[in-house]
Amino acid sequence: MEEIKIGRYRHFKGNEYEVIGTAKHSETLEEYVVYKALYGEGGLWVRPAEMWNETVERDGKTFKRFEYIG
User: Fold this and answer.
1) Is the CB of residue 62 less than 8 Å from the CB of residue 55?
2) Alpha carbon distance 10, 20 (integer Å)
3) Which fold has domain 7-56?
4) Residues 6 or more apart in contact with residue 22 via CB below 8 angstroms
5) CA end-to-end span of the chain
6) pTM check: above 0.85
7) Where are the domains of the chain?
8) Which of 25, 40, 65, 70 has a C-alpha 20 to 30 A away from that of 10?
9) Which of 23-57 are b and which e, b meaning 16 or more Cβ less than 10 Å from the residue's Cβ?
């Protein structure tokens, strides 16, 4: 699995997020990304790391779901 760095990311739909870190589920040991939205009320979120690193297809083009920007 691709390393998930701490820092800012842009979602393929355009919004930006800040990765705070990663965490493991206490029962399954699945790795999750802990991040916050850098827009609106800036809520705190978690997402499976596997999903974070996915590519998505939109309008016939392939994108990383989240692109590291620094």
Assistant:
1) yes
2) 14
3) SH3 type barrels. (2.30.30)
4) 4, 31, 32, 33, 34, 49
5) 20
6) yes
7) 7-56
8) 25
9) eeeeeeeeebbebeeeeeeeeeeeeebeebeeeee
